[in-house]
Amino acid sequence: MRIIVDAMGGDFAPLAPVKGALAAREKYGVEIVLVGREDTVRDAMAACGRSALPAGVTLLPASEVVEICDDPATAFKTKKDSSLTVGLKALKAGEADGFVSAGSTGALLSGATLLVKRIRGLRRAALAPVLPTALGRAVLIDCGANAECTVEYLLQFAYLGSYYAGKVLHMDSPRVGLLNIGAEESKGDTLRRETYQKLREAGERGYLNFVGNVEAKEAMLGGCDVIVADGYSGNIMLKSLEGTGLFLSKRLKDILTKNAGTKLAALLLKGGLADFKRTLDPSEVGGTVLLGISKPVIKAHGSSDETAFCNAIRQAVAVAESGIIADIERDIDRMRLPRGDGAPE
């Protein structure tokens, strides 16, 4: 298994991606291709105590870097020798089994869509992060790639999320819920009501385990395994959860460091608090998969550290080994709607 890592993407590049890649190489035995400016990558290697590239790690030179200020829709075209563009082209050419980057989300999505291409028959690719819930975890799809959606987009997101939950996260018959403002069938706008009908039909045919509408609070209590949303609503939900997690962590720290008694309680709770922190730590997941792209592409968080990159590489390997893309290609016909039946013209 070989994974390409964008060594120039992220707030702590190139050191964090290089360290994470070296850790993944040692921990999982995966072959690594670091793509980026040769002198910069070698300097990062030296900072890691490596005088040369270790066995199983190669360097793919790229002289340019896609910056956050660049237009995400065209950056991969205007900077044709960027680490993002060079890496995605190598993935498309079959030189690796997956790609990981913590660079611009928009540029990565545009580049993956236009260079690597979507799976034939899918209308849009979607960002699908894995969220912690009271009963374990759930896939949120979409969380920002598609602010405006059609019924067919949401139907396809449901299938993509279900395949990911089953094949990669190893959930048995993952429960699919449609994010809405209420559980009743009549709730929501026209898009949500029409999508509900299509998801129910797919459930009746045995294609999906559709459990109906789900409110955000119920989703976080474990009401479903796949949360289907347009990118606008999904992103608001994701950012709200991230903010809530940070708020709870801060408040808990303030409470447990207030006086000698609470500090003693904190000492007794040390193990449980560490587990709680890991549950809320996005670096433990690794990144967000771009579902719908014809090869595995993982978007790591911009602030990813060594641990996050290592886990993002592990995630790319898991997607590549799962066979999810072949399964989607095989069943693509059931995910498509006739024109005029909730499908875009």
Briefly characterize the structure.
This protein is α/β, with parallel strands linked by helices and 345 residues long.
Descriptive overview:
The protein is an alpha/beta fold and 345 residues long. The protein folds into two domains: 1-122 and 292-345, 3-Layer(aba) Sandwich (Isopropylmalate Dehydrogenase); 128-285, Isopropylmalate Dehydrogenase, CATH 3.40.718. 46% of the residues lie in helices and 16% in strands. It has 13 helices and twelve strands. It has helices at 15-28, 38-47, 75-78, 83-92, 105-116, 151-167, 190-204, 216-220, 231-256, 260-268, 270-280, 306-322, 324-330; strands at residues 2-6, 31-36, 57-61, 98-101, 126-128, 130-133, 136-141, 175-179, 209-214, 226-228, 287-291, 297-300. The longest helix is centred in the C-terminal third of the chain and has 26 residues, at 231-256. The protein starts with a strand and ends in a 15-residue tail after the last helix.
